[in-house]
Amino acid sequence: MATHADLGALFECDPRSANPDVKRRAQIELAVDRGQCIVWDNNGQVVGFIVTLPHHFFGRDFVDLLVVSESHRRQGIGRWLMRIVVKLVASAEVWTSTNESNIAMRDLACKRRLVVQRHSSRSG
After folding, report:
1. N or C: which end of the chain has fewer CB within 10 A?
2. pLDDT confidence of 95, banded at 50, 70, 90?
């Protein structure tokens, strides 16, 4: 589980937090406070994390955020984080939501048998 000592590294790992997106940083900090953030560490460096909200979606656990640093993508880190979540969840199903344009996340969710609610990437 992530701790407050990890917050700086979590923000660095996430491009939106690095901007800085204050709302996103608050979301991550709250997840850390609640013990809902799992970190992927590579030789002492945080390169990914996942935030899961227990019983959030109609009594099912919900993957709220999955982040892998840009330099470590497509190396299986997201897949491993999902495996950890699926083993730890309290509900029978794990749900997530993503944009239609996020093909990597859609593929990952399909492989892990997650139920995905897709959102259009179009504005308006």
Report:
1. C
2. low
